[in-house]
Amino acid sequence: MAARRDELTDTAADAAIDTACRVLRLPTIRDRHGEVAAAAARQQAGYKAFLTELLSLECDDREMRRKARLVREAAFPRSKRLEDFDFAANPDVPAALIGTLSRCQWVAAGQPCCLIGDSGTGKSHLLIALGTAAAENGYRVRYVTAAALVNELVEAAGAVRAIHAAAPGIPLAAGNHQMLTQACAAARVQLGDWDRRILTWLAGWEPATCAVVAGLIWRAAAAAPSSSPPAAGKKKVPDGPGHA
Predict the structure, then answer these.
(1) What is the Cα 103 distance to its own chain's centre?
(2) Mean per-residue pLDDT over the chain, rounded
């Protein structure tokens, strides 16, 4: 019969904790439970205090890893942070306004932010720094230059022309619908009835508009981290408003 847990040796207990933490994906607890246990013993801390410290460390490290992942996925060309910006050398840049922008309320409200100024005034630094702040606040960010965005939209428009050229007898709306459906398939989005109704509505717009929408979907799919497709029978996108 297996030994009771309170009868485990330290070595066996460490091995059991290591295995459990790997299964539960708790790397910080796996790496630091020994030192935290030793500190708790010295301080004569109770079990709850010991567990609280372990879980707090795991949560803090997980939050740091999440921020680092979002910043990395943003694909900034270089690292720039607001605390490194020299406001004294750029007195025309309002520090209070930049501080407000760094709290990302404008992102949550869906508002645009445009930085305008002469060369050498720190626009690129502030752009990357504000993007980094947004990523660290939990938003998915993607750095892209205007030239790259135009190229992607031109490619999407070319895809539209190719669809219509390959099937000249297909009505315009049908070709637009095919393009949008292909873009959603590339993004591995499962479409519900409400989503299909939206695609049908979008397909009635001009091809250039549909190309922009399809290009944005394709770009979002390319930026998203790879993951396994959703399991069969599970819906990833709700059928419409009000559905959980």
Answers:
(1) 17
(2) 80
Cα separation of 234 and 213, whole Å?
Answer: 26
Do residues 121 and 90 touch, judged by C-beta distance below 8 A?
yes
Residue 53 forms part of a structural domain: yes
Q: How far is CA 31 from the centre of its chain?
A: 27
Q: What is the number of structural domains in the chain?
A: 3
- The pLDDT of residue 240: 35
Percentages helix, strand, coil for the chain, rounded to the nearest 5? 65, 0, 35
| Same structural domain, 172 and 218 | yes
pLDDT at 211: 78
Q: How far is CA 234 from the centre of its chain?
A: 22
| 178, 207 Cβ separation under 8 angstroms | no
The reply to whether 103 and 50 lie within a common domain is: no
Where the chain has pLDDT below 70, the residues are 1-7, 156-157, 159-173, 219-244
Domain limits for position 59 = 11-73
